[in-house]
């Protein structure tokens, strides 16, 4: 067989193979849920798989991490800054609320971090991203880490009532400070409320001691505005703005609700930099 004949045979095969690969990738994406896509994108930070980047809308990607530039270009620049082969990303919890997907992730890039990521989808593509990161600390006084505890979503039929309960809790207790009503939201015994904040022990007693200590130092924790509540089943994430240790911060609080009471809490608190240091103009919230 001469070279010309061989070239005539090989070229169509190569084209067909490329088309099959593209079709297979597109078909796989179509079969994935938005939650699965978001998890795959975060896990690609560690495994280096380039395919999940295709889940991002290349023409519209609004970035709310203020240390990263806007758009797909900003995402790419951030990925280039990661240490080669040294980044870790292990998703611990994932759930979906309409067009939003929430992930709770254990990271290790430029140091170990606990993080929440929120992705918004349009037409099955990621078009917007928020996150909140905090350094990982040793287990808290009750022995809990920032990640342990239940991971599977349950009580799907109670999503709306659980979101309403957390919304009321944030407004009544965290923003207005009406502590006399806390019994409506959390049980009285220490075992009724499992705490994963690295500085706070279980129960209302642990929460009370932590808040009192901050007040005595003249640096009370203040929630000023709730920007978004997202939930599925027994997991509900509240995204708020306020002050902590005299710094302007974003509060991401993940609650687990059971039988009409808040029974578990994970969180991250991240300082909001001055606007002069922002790498995009979208703001930390913008819901």
From TrEMBL:
InterPro entries: Cyclase_SnoaL-like (IPR009959), NTF2-like_dom_sf (IPR032710). Residues 1-28 form the signal peptide. It comes from the Bacteria. Keywords: Signal. This is Nuclear transport factor 2 family protein. It comes from Marinomonas sargassi. The lineage of its organism: Bacteria, Pseudomonadati, Pseudomonadota, Gammaproteobacteria, Oceanospirillales.
């Amino acid at each position: 067989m001469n070279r010309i004949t061989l070239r005539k045979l090989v070229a169509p095969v190569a084209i067909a193979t490329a088309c099959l690969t593209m079709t297979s990738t597109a078909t796989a994406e179509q079969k994935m849920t938005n939650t699965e896509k978001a998890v795959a994108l975060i896990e690609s930070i560690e495994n280096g798989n380039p395919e999940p980047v295709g889940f991002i809308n290349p023409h519209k990607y609004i970035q709310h991490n203020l240390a990263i530039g806007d758009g797909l270009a900003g995402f790419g620049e951030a990925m280039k800054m990661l240490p080669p082969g040294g980044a870790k990303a292990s998703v611990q919890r994932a759930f979906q609320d309409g067009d939003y997907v929430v992930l709770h992730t254990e990271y290790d890039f430029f140091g170990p971090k606990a993080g929440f990521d929120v992705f918004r989808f349009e037409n099955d593509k990621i078009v917007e991203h928020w996150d909140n990161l905090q350094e990982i600390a040793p287990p808290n006084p009750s022995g809990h880490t920032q990640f342990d505890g239940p991971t599977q979503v349950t009580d799907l039929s109670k999503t709306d009532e659980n979101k309403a309960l957390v919304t009321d809790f944030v407004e009544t207790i965290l923003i207005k400070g009406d502590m006399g009503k806390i019994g409506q939201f959390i049980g009285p015994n220490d075992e009724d409320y499992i705490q994963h904040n690295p500085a706070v022990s279980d129960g209302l007693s642990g929460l009370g001691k932590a808040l009192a200590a901050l007040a005595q130092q003249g640096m009370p924790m203040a929630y000023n505005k709730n920007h978004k509540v997202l939930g599925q089943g027994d997991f509900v994430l509240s995204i708020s703005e306020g002050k902590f240790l005299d710094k302007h911060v974003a509060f991401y609080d993940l609650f687990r609700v059971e039988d009409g009471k808040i029974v578990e809490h994970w969180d991250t608190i991240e300082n909001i930099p001055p606007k002069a240091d922002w790498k995009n103009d979208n703001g930390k919230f913008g819901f």
